[in-house]
Amino acid sequence: MLLSSFAVSPARGFHSTLSARITLHDEDHTCSIFVLYTLPPSVIVDRHELADHGIEFELWGESNLELPVFAISQTNTSLLLSARPVPHHLNEVLVEVPIHARYGVPLRGSRPRQLIEIPPPTCVRACPQSRTSYSLPCVPADAIHFRVSQFHAVPAAKLDVPVGSLDDLPLVEAGTVVAVLAAFLWLVYRSWMCSSKLQSRHFIDKRD
Question: Which of 59, 58, 61, 88 is nearest to 74 (CA)?
Answer without folding.
Answer: 61
